Amino acid sequence: MFYNLSPCSIMPKLRGSGGTPLLFFIFSLLSTLNGTNSAITDTNSNSSLHFKEAPQFYNSPSCSSINSSVNVAMTLDIAYLRGSMAAILSVLQHSSCPENIVFHFVSSSSAESTHLNFTITKSFPYLQFTIYPIQDVASVAGLISTSIRSALDCPLNYARNYLADLLPQQLQKVVYLDSDLVLVDDIAELAATPLTGDSVLAAPEYCNANFTTYFTPTFWSNPSLSLTFANRNRRPCYFNTGVMVIDLERWRAGDYTTKIVEWMELQKRMRIYELGSLPPFLLVFAGNIAPVDHSWNQHGLGGDNFHGLCRDLHPGPVSLLHWSGKGKPWARLDANRPCPLDGLWSPYDLLQTPYTIES
What we know:
Blueprint: E1 14-15, H1 22-34, H2 36-41, E2 70-75, H3 81-93, E3 101-107, H4 110-123, E4 128-133, H5 137-143, H6 163-166, E5 173-177, E6 181-183, H7 187-191, E7 201-203, E8 205-206, H8 217-221, H9 223-226, E9 238-239, E10 243-247, H10 248-254, H11 256-269, H12 278-285, E11 289-291, E12 320-322, H13 329-334
Parallel strand pairs: 2-3, 2-5, 3-4, 7-11
Antiparallel strand pairs: 1-4, 5-10, 6-12, 7-10, 8-9
């Protein structure tokens, strides 16, 4: 799924440009010789997918200066590229100041990033973006414990832990987004969320969820561990890490990357949770999250269509639809087994199919 390259490769920083890398030219030529249809339909050849150019979006008259910039961080890889392209398009399409949006993409392979850089530039020629390396992917991989889903064990799934180190030091605040979502509202409203008190993160919280299920009996039976949530002023609630507003200055000042890594190291010694990269965030931040309206993360839409378990929207307004879970809308649409809400994702799909007629 990773372009037949190691996801632990270390890459140089790449900035968006209009040039065509030689590597991608050679790859495209080989793909053509192998046959376009087989390249499109082979689910193990996601790197051969081609995407349409998105429309250019312009600022409204109310966008006066660069001071209104919104910085968006996302991971970027071949396996989820189709979802990322749709997410980017949705952000731009619903923004009142799309020219002021700056994207910060984190990747994990230098050769893959060359292809990704070309693909993003080709579909979004005017996009402001930078691709950053995870400096030591092997070290990140060494901290990961196996989880209930193998897809959660990729080092890139843990990139959110290291944003404060990877992104420019002068960057104060960033909106982090997963690749399996689309926005239907102006991201500037989400970015303007106030991080009250000493909060480092803002996200929608779900306090009705059974918080104890995110950790093992080993965790709860150990008094020194379970006391993590004993603070009377800290009411721990579940929050989804796929949509967050992060104060990078406070993160750096509090050295929160180290705090997350310490929990991951403990997990390697004694299994205290089961679910990927989420529990360390809960251990460090739950109970001290600035509030965000639930409309900004209608999550869980991935469901599990194999058993017909399509999800409905949560009650209330919708600003962001998030296909977290096993089922991704592009895979279900391709398999002709979509869930009803997958039709809300398809208008943002930029995939160039073999039968598309260009005007």
